[in-house]
Design the sequence.
């Protein structure tokens, strides 16, 4: 049931503060501000030398964000793969290492085949799934359910932010086990996670501005999304979301790659969505924005108060996100990214919940 929303997608976007709260409650202890995984791990993170993360589509982008977390918090080398590539490319895998699979439906054919392949190679398998009775959940050694509730819209929204939440908890647990995070680091990170529902709710208040912006975007032929660090996979996700429901061509790029090709596309007609919380790499992203502005590109900047103050670039719409610690910005910035795709699709008059040619769960390869 869509409650009072026009589409399931809108309802699911708005449910995010609540369902992320549910996922948090499953994986951490709010009172002590520590990670408290409810399941026993059949491996020790200290013995894991290499982590592979495999998924498709939006779930793959959640994994891509998590790569940054596992590397930073647990100093664990991570390879992120698209399931259809992982299963055929004969990557050298080490038995005893860990492979993580991420899937909303738990039925995606390529992800399931990749899981079976990893098992055959003697890897430990852990899946982050939204449907706990699914095949991927059943066949994995360890399951971390995301408590997003049923996701009906073909475009994945709340499953994505819940996947990120579960993966963040696991990356912190890995850091603790490997001795790369102190108790104080853990407490700080967990505190950041606990703040997420409130910050996501704050992000949702920008919907009217994004709705107005969507009228503009709906006239574009192509849209470019840029980000650095964890905002890079979010840029990929933004472009996927826009193309799958509005049918407007979009591309996500690491901001630093701009000069290596995509800058040739930029003219006055090209909206460029820049996802740039004020973080370690912010200044670098500002110089990329200047390159876009110098070529007449129209910049839509998603940032916070400090970022807005520091980004002195013309021709810009700024979508102001709340101030927050850098680690978990993807969960909060996902909201304007999703809303922009959603409202653009509504303006275009497409079938938002059932976009053409797509299925909610891709059970054939
Ligand atoms: O059910 P899964 O998470 O395994 O699905 C993976 C992709 O098919 C899915 O994320 C797809 O990319 C969505 N339509 C994106 O919105």
Sequence:
């Amino acid at each position: 049931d869509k409650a009072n929303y026009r589409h399931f997608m809108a309802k699911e976007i708005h449910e995010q503060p609540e369902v992320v709260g549910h996922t948090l409650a499953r994986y951490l202890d709010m009172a002590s501000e520590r990670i408290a995984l409810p399941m026993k791990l059949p491996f020790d993170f200290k013995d894991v030398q290499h982590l592979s993360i495999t998924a498709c589509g939006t779930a793959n982008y959640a994994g891509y964000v998590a790569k940054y977390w596992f590397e930073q918090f647990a100093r664990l080398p991570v390879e992120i793969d698209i399931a259809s590539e992982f299963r055929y490319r004969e990557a050298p895998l080490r038995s005893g290492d860990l492979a993580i699979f991420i899937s909303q439906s738990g039925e995606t054919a390529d992800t399931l085949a990749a899981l079976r392949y990893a098992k055959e190679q003697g890897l430990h398998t852990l899946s982050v799934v939204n449907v706990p009775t699914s095949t991927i959940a059943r066949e994995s050694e360890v399951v971390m359910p995301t408590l997003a509730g049923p996701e009906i819209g073909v475009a994945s929204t709340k499953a994505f932010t819940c996947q990120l939440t579960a993966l963040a908890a696991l990356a912190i647990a890995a850091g603790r086990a490997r001795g790369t995070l102190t108790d104080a680091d853990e407490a700080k990170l967990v505190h950041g996670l606990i703040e997420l529902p409130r910050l996501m709710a704050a992000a949702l208040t920008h919907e009217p501005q994004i709705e107005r912006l969507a009228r503009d975007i709906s006239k574009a032929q192509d849209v470019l999304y840029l980000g650095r660090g964890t905002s890079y996979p979010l840029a990929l996700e933004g472009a996927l979301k826009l193309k799958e429901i509005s049918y407007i061509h979009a591309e996500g790029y690491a901001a630093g790659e701009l000069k290596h090709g995509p800058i040739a596309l930029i003219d006055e007609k090209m909206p460029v969505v820049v996802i740039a919380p004020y973080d370690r790499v912010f200044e670098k992203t500002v110089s990329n924005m200047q390159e876009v502005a110098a070529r007449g590109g129209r910049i839509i900047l998603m940032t916070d108060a400090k970022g807005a103050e520091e980004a002195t670039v013309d021709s810009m719409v700024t979508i102001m996100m709340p101030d927050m610690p850098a680690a978990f910005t993807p969960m909060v910035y996902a909201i304007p990214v999703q809303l922009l795709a959603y409202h653009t699709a509504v303006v275009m008059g497409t079938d938002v919940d059932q976009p053409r040619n797509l299925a909610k769960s891709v059970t054939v390869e």
